[in-house]
Amino acid sequence: MSISKNCKNYVNMFHRFLTPRKMYLVKWRDLQMKNESEIKEFYNVLLFSLPKETRPILRAVFFSIREGRPVSEDFLAKQTGIETKTVESVVEILAQRQMIVRGDNRKIVGALGLSIIQTNNKIQMEGRTLFAWCAISTLELSTALEADVDIHSSCAYTGESIEVTVRNGKLEKVTPDSTVIWTVPFDSEAPWAGGTCKQIHYFSSVEHANKWKEEHPKLHGEVMTLEQALSFGNELKNFLS
């Protein structure tokens, strides 16, 4: 992306940021997240569009979810030292974008791809069973948390079991070894958990991914390797730092 085009994007975002009702609707369409530089740019855009209190609040949420604990707004206010009204406002913005997910009691049960609530992507990590919103999340979370993980998922086309083991930041075992991930262009105006993440899947082979795509002709995306998804966690780690 050229410098002039990049600057134009940020100017456009600034104007949107000054409009309160549009503050969290920064437009960054069709960002195909193929490498770490694009991921870094995405998180920079994301932070620019959100209130300054977002990062400490998300950190507190994320690491509580990691421990298997649902999160209340009162807890966040005490944990971060941020006023309760501000916490409530930020949480509402994050919930609307589905960067977090709340349960029936309004406690937060998922954030940034990590979930207490069951999904098709199970993660066993540090003696605890958690879940991920999508195939990419299972791997980037391992990198972001610098944790060894055992991933249990299934092929979105055949239903075949998929098992992935990550040790010391590297793929140790993948079954079947032909497993790939289908990813889509990221639209920052779309909801995370219930939107983009629901279109990112494991497939037991490129062939099965292509057959699935034939059945979903309106979806735009491409196949990526598990190694690529693993590397995405570096920017998530920076985002949470």
From TrEMBL:
InterPro entries documented for this protein: MerB, MerB_lyase_sf
Superkingdom, taxonomy of origin: Bacteria
GO molecular function, one term: alkylmercury lyase activity
A Pfam family that the UniProt record links to this protein: MerB
Protein name, UniProt field: Alkylmercury lyase
The species this protein was found in: Cytobacillus horneckiae
Species classification: Bacteria, Bacillati, Bacillota, Bacilli, Bacillales
